[in-house]
Each structure stands twice: as C-alpha cells, then as structure tokens.
Design brief:
Chain A: This is Sugar ABC transporter permease. The complex is a heterodimer of chains A (303) and B (294). Chain A has 303 residues and is mostly helical. Chain A contains 13 helices and two strands. Chain A has a two-stranded antiparallel ribbon with strand order 1-2. In chain A, strand 1 and strand 2 form a beta hairpin. In chain A, 41% of the residues are buried. In chain B, helix 1 packs across helix 13 and helix 3 packs parallel to helix 6. The two termini of chain B are 13 Å apart. Classes of the chains: A mainly alpha (303), B mainly alpha (294). Chains A and B meet through helix 1, helix 4, helix 5, helix 7 and helix 8 of A and helix 1, helix 3, helix 4, helix 5 and helix 6 of B.
C-alpha cells in the first residue's frame, strides 16, 4: 500500500524528521502528564510527602500502614459492593435497552437520544438533581415511594440505603452508554443468521440465546471490562460520591478513589494516597488479566 | 467484509454503508407495538428527573417541592443565580477551558495521528503502542502524582493548570489514526510531486479531509471538559478560577436548602451540554461506536 519503492536516504531523513516534529507536542504532553505521573506514583508511595512538598523516605511504611487502617478496609469493602452491584446491573440494563431499541419503530431515534441523554450531563448536576429528588419526606421520588412504604426512607441519609441508591443513580447515568456499545455489537450481527433461525422456527428467546448472545461475546467482554474499570477508578466513583454524600453516611459510600482524594487533599498525606493508588492499579491489572485468562482472550460466551 | 448482506434489522442512525435493501417489510405484529410502547415508557421514565429539573427551575420560591407544573412560571431563580452568584464568571471560565483544550487537543492529536499513520520512520510502532497504552490510565489513578507535578511546574491556580494537563489523551490520537489509515494516498502523492512539504501537506490536504472525525472528537472533548470536576477542584482554589462544575458544588454548600437556586444553576450549566449534544449527537455516537469496538 505504501508509495514508491526505493526512497532516497535524503527523503527518508526528511520524513523521519517531519514525523518527530509532528509527534513532539503529544509525545511530550503524554510523557509529562500521564507516563511520568504513573511512575512517579510508584516512587511517591515510598515517601512521606506533606502539603508543602517536603519528601521524607519511609520505605514500605505506607504499605504497612494500610494493614492497620480500618477506614481503608471500609473503602475497599464499599468499592467491592459497588462493583458487584453496578457491573451486572448496568450490563443488564444496557443490553436490555439495546434489544428494546434495536428494531425500528416510530420515534426510535428520539427514544435512543432520551435514553443516552443522562450520560451527556455532568455528574455534579446529576448528583445535585438526585439529591433534590430524594430529599427526606419532601423529594418527589421519596413521595412517590410512599404507597410502597418507602415514604419515610432517607435514601441518602440512611447507611443501609445510601450505597444502593448511589448504585442505581450510577446505573441510570451509564446505561445509555452501555446501550450504545451493545447496539453497535448488535448491528454487526449478520442478519442472515437471524433470518435462518427465524425460518427454522426459533422464537424470540431462542434467537437471543442461540444466535444473538454468542455473537455478542466480544461486545459483552468489552462492556464488562470498561464498566469494571470505570466503577473502580472512574470519575463516577468520585464526582458522584463527592456531590451526593461526601462519602457518608457513616462512610457507606466512601469509595477507594474518594478515600485517596481525602487522604491527599483533605489530610495532606500524598505519599500514603499514592501507595493506595499503587495497590488499586495492581488489583485492577490482576483482575483484568484474570478475566482475559478465564475467558480465553475475551471470547466470553462464544462456544 | 461482507458487502452483500440481507441485514433487514440494520437500524443504524448513520447512513448505512450498503444501500438500503428493497422493501421487505415484516408483517406488523402486536409484539412490535408492545415493544414500541415499552421503549417510549422507559425513555420517558429515564428523562423524568431532567424534566423535573426544568420545571423546578421555573417554579416560584417555596414551590420547589410541590408537584406538577409551576403555579406561575418565573425567571426569578435564573436571574438570582446569574446576578447574585458569580455564575457568569464560572460559565466564562468553563467556556475558555473547554474551547481551548478542545482546539489544542484536536491540533496536537491530528498531528500525531498523521505522523503515526502516514509517515514512515523507525520506531513508529513502538511510539504508537506506548501512546495507546496510556489510554488505560484514568485521571483518578494519577491524580496525586499529577497534582504534585503540575504544582512543581507552576500550574497551580491558573488557567494553564486548568488547560494544559487536560489536553493530552491518547484516545484522540488512536481514533484519528484509525481514520487516517483509510485515506487514499493519491492526493498526498500529487501534492508531494508538486513539491509540497509535510507541514503544508498536513495543513492543506490532511486536515481539511479529516473534518468529520474532528467534528465528532470536538463534541466529545467539549462535553468531557465542560463536565470536568475533579481536576479543576484540586488544581484551583481561587474562586475567580472556578469552572461551572466547581461553582455548582460551592452553590450546593452555600444554598444547601434553597434548591430553587441550585437547580436553576444546574439548568444553566446543562444548557450548553444539551445544545452541543443534540447538535453533535450523530458524530458523538459514531465516534463512541468506533472507539469501543472497531
């Protein structure tokens, strides 16, 4: 596909120089603002760093400290619960919605837009809005829950309810995005297979189970990995928590990412925060690798 | 790539890659109608909170928690937020940051993508994989070290700090490179025969041809930066530099129970988002699809 066969050495030199000049801004930017911070996090975790930028070598002390930090244990537990609830729920909602709006009907474009709309908004606005909808006794959703015996529930103030509420709001926010990914996957399915199944007399469920589901394998895997990473280290694990509950009540919504922020920017323990980050990343790498291994490189349910 | 498909179920919003098949309508069934009704119902339930936001922002004081339509539509809440709170300042700050980040990111990313897709040089494969691997890093993961580095570079509490670190993400490079790989080389060849250097080639041939890809990325970048909260929160403390999301969260603190003001602010903050989203929806969705799976 490439043009010309033998390039003169001069031409080659010019092309190389041009390439590096074009690459320079992004190469430098990514190095300074992404790659170096990654490595720097590792180094930071071995220091005690205060808000004034004084570094003191402490070796593995930060990691030792984690072992006896009940608040961290709690944040990890909150994150685990959040992931276990959020990932399957948003997967199910995303897939369900995609199947619902896959075929055309009057206004299908508008419906898709409306379903995706929450994802275009900022998590700050979403947090404020849901806080208002769920205000104790007065919020419109709280009132609507009254016939179901939920009228007196303090959705964001009761330690028992705060996390499930936060999960549901996250699902509401992200299901449109998952829907879009599944729609793309569905549209790549060759219609012939479905027609053949239909001719063979396969009903809706059978077509889903034996044709659509296996062919959606790669999409499902992608959705699973991205929503896992997003729920552990994504912005929704910070922005939404910050606005909705500030980690409360009783730390029931304090995710690890939120805890890292607090350690660094509320308490000034930058080194400790970096150490927690290192563990978090390590955990994600292990889980992702395990998922790859278990599914044989992402072939989730293709048999 | 199967060009000839019998895909009657293809319902992409974008123009179909293959010409639409001759009509082969399935018999309308009751199941279809039921599905349409359910889909509409779900969509309306989904946007209910947003409709409620809109209504409440126009309700007179003291009616925030009353049901239904406002008894009287009023602009008082919006006026209050725009005059008694430095909201115009927040909006301006956000606009500056979002527009500048988007413009510079598009320029730099398309330059890099051009080099990585069209120019031959030793090590290009290595550079590409190094850049793409940074896509796995999200902001919360590097927040602490990034903050310390930005601080050391003098980026604390100024516009440069809000803008510069947010420009660089390999996602844009990756997407544009995919796009450039599909360009025909003839135009470039012709231009080069005419003695056109690489910079002019890029500026006058490649950039104009990449308008569709740039459009979709600009929607994505603008939304991401307009909605950004965490980075502006940590890198600025000067209230004059507060972007709209940070301003909103401080509004939450100041007017904790005055939801009419908080929601009026939310409505204003959301308007540019919705406008950009509706105008650029098709592009946005295309870019997300291709980012995800292709």
């Amino acid at each position: 596909m490439r043009r010309g066969a033998a390039l003169s050495a001069d031409r080659h030199k010019r092309e190389t120089r041009a390439a590096w000049l074009f690459l320079a801004p992004d190469a430098v930017g990514l190095l300074v603002f992404v790659a170096i911070p990654m490595v720097f996090a590792l180094a930071l975790s071995l220091f005690d760093v205060d808000g004034f930028g004084n570094y003191r070598w402490v070796g593995l002390d930060n990691f030792h400290r984690m072992l006896s930090d009940p608040m961290l244990g709690r944040a990890i537990w909150v994150t685990v619960k959040y992931v276990v609830l959020f990932v399957p729920l948003s997967f199910a909602f995303g897939l369900g919605l995609a199947l619902l709006v896959w075929n055309t009907f009057p206004g299908v474009g508008v419906v898709r837009t409306l379903l995706f709309l929450p994802n275009a908004l900022s998590l700050v606005v979403i947090g404020l809005l849901w806080q208002f909808l769920l205000v104790d006794k007065q919020g419109v959703l709280t009132k609507m829950g009254r016939p179901f015996g939920l009228g007196d529930v303090s959705f964001l103030g009761d330690p028992k309810w705060a996390l499930p509420t936060y999960v549901l709001i996250s699902v509401w926010y992200s299901m449109g995005y998952q829907m879009l990914l599944f729609l793309a996957g569905l549209n790549d399915i060759n219609g012939e297979h479905l027609d053949a199944a239909r001719v063979d007399g396969a009903g809706g469920w059978q077509r889903f189970r034996h044709v659509i589901w296996p062919l959606l394998g790669p999409t499902s895997f992608f959705v699973l990995i991205t929503s896992l990473v997003a729920s552990v280290t994504g912005l929704q694990a910070f922005d939404l928590v910050f606005v909705l509950t500030k980690g409360g009540p009783d730390n029931q919504t304090s995710t690890v990412v939120f805890y890292i922020y607090q350690q660094a920017f509320s308490f000034g323990h930058f080194g400790y925060a970096a150490a927690i980050t290192v563990i978090l990343v390590l955990f994600l790498v292990i889980v992702t690798a395990a998922l790859f291994k278990v599914t044989g490189g992402g072939r989730l349910h293709a048999r | 790539m199967p060009v000839e498909t019998t895909d009657v179920t293809r319902t992409v919003d974008a123009p179909p890659r293959t010409p639409p098949r001759p009509v082969r309508r399935r018999r309308p069934r009751a199941g279809h109608l039921a599905r349409a009704v359910i889909a509409w119902a779900v969509a309306l339930i989904t946007v209910f909170p947003l409709v409620w936001l809109l209504l409440t922002a126009f309700k007179p004081e003291g009616e925030s928690f009353s049901g239904g339509l406002p008894s009287r539509w009023t602009f008082d809440n919006l006026t209050f937020v725009l005059t008694e709170v430095p909201f115009p300042r927040y909006l301006l700050n956000s606009a500056i940051v979002s527009v500048v980040v988007t413009a510079l990111a598009l320029l730099f990313h398309s330059m890099a993508a051009y080099a990585l897709s069209r120019l031959r040089f030793r090590g290009s494969g290595l550079v590409l994989s190094a850049m793409v691997s940074t896509m796995l890093v999200s902001l919360p993961v590097i927040l602490v070290p990034l903050f310390l580095i930005a601080k050391a570079l003098g980026l604390l509490d100024n516009f440069a700090g809000l803008i510069v670190p947010m420009i660089f993400n390999a996602f844009g490079i990756f997407l544009l490179r995919q796009y450039y790989l599909n360009f025909p080389t003839e135009l470039e060849d012709a231009a080069q025969l005419d003695g056109c250097g690489y910079p002019r080639l890029f500026w006058h041939v490649v950039l104009p041809l990449s308008r569709p890809a740039l459009a979709s990325l600009s929607v994505l970048f603008f939304l991401a930066n307009w909605n950004a909260f965490l980075w502006p929160l940590v890198i600025t403390s000067n209230p004059d530099l507060a972007v709209v999301q940070v301003g909103m969260s401080s509004l939450q603190g100041q007017y904790a129970s005055a939801y009419n003001y908080v929601l009026a602010g939310s409505l204003i903050a959301v308007i540019p988002t919705i406008l950009v989203f509706l105008l650029g929806q098709r592009w946005l969705i295309e870019s997300m699809k291709s980012s995800g799976l292709k």
